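Researcher:
Attend to token order:
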Amino acid sequence: MRSLTLSIVLQLAASGSAGCSLALPGIEPCEARLLPGDLVITELMANPHGDESAGEWVEFANATARTIELAGVVLLAEPSADRLDGPDARRHAISGRVIEPGAYLAVGPGSSDIASTELDNGPGGDVDHLADSAGQVAIKCDVIEIDRVAYAGVQEGVALSLGATIALDHEVNDQPSSWCAPAGQYSAGNFGTPGRANDCVTAASDGMCEDSGTARPVQTAVPGDLVITEVMANPVAVGDPDGEWFEVYASRDVDLNGLVAGRDPASAPELTLEGAACLRVVAGTHIVFARNGNSATNGGISPVDHEFGFSLGNSRGDLYIGAGDTVIDRVFWSNAPDGASAALDPDLIDPKANDASESWCADTENHYGQGDFGTPGRPNGQCVIAVPGMCDDGGVMRAIRSPGPDQVTITEYMANPETIADSNGEWIEVYFAAAADLNGLELGREPGSVLTTVQASECRSISAGTHVVFARVIESEKNGGLPAVDALFDFGLVNASGSLFVGVAGEILDSLQYTGSSAGAAASLDHNGRWCANHQDPYGSGTNTGTPGAANPLCPSSATRK
């Protein structure tokens, strides 16, 4: 669409009344008894391509339910955007014409290219001198100003058109957002629809949208109308930039025009749904928002209703939807499951109920697309609500198997990674000598001050002899290339004079203190109980060394013993 700059100004007559007859020299009295808004200016061609003297025109429509006799109605044109009745104003009386309800009439100097009426050349000259760059036109009945439009930035051969879905209203057409560039040509090099309904569509403005060709108010959602019900923050089948999505449930018929979304409602929205057409959703609809709308590359999400361009966090996340400054719903999460959506229990679809972490569970049963789990666009499965001390083992609730104090050992940690930020590249390795569950495991720096607890409704089982890796970030491309991450922690490791502990239910299972760290090398505990910096085993991109998730190499005999 061609770009336009249009300024609309309205000025109602300060005196006079409908039907009063104030004769102008050479112009018959206006007997139409018109009021402001009965006729609405809908289109004008101020800078036609070709013969300008024969191609300028102004279109207006009958906004009433009655036939209007135009005898004595005056069209005025002024090359100034500031005043209308100056010495350069041109006036034309429209005589011998009628306009039916809802009809359009284009008036100009009689060009055969348009459906128009020739204007009688009354005092003040002709209307074929509309200002090309900035000016205004108006319709008067005696002293009553029926409508006025001021314009600027006209392009050659392009009419200024009131949007096809915009109401015929003399105040609505004051707004620049109500106007647009016509799509079709009526003559070579000239775009417009003189004498008939306009064909261009504006972006929705002033709370209006197009519904089956008719403009109507947008039915904006309020809290309770839309609920966030599912979030895929950590897809495995494809990368996060392609495979992330979230789902919103509509509990009432609403329009999504103007809906905003993002990660922080205190900041500017990261997504705004716009469009002239009404983005209607009916009650009971599951609306899918995805980073990538192509099912061939997004992991098989189909259909996608709307796309968004911001990232969902894995270790911790925040998502909201809103309308203007009103937050409609907001959810938080931590430790997003790998390759599975976080799904709201279908019995708890409520903007308050979904604030509680126990209302959500990882969908580990419903495959979609290329293998990830979730139900984008469909109802969620029932969650097995977490019970203290219990976890879901394949659909069967059982007691959590917590490890004992002699079964867990901190064996490796990366406190000072190189080439990546500490907040991305730090990790801790814990060795489990016996089978156990990670559920409820606690980590921190100072014993007694828990900073991270592994929380999950499903049993996070670990086999005996397993080296478990806890990391700050789960994505391999962000964490320095860790081969696998079993769980996340959200506190920083100190480079010098630090400490660590792992425990469960307030009991310390293992702890250590250290006085320093080697840049880019993990601190490693060998099977002889000696600690040293592992400089010999690169992982990931090769800039950092260590054996995350695997047995550690022997330390020099001079290394510090635990």
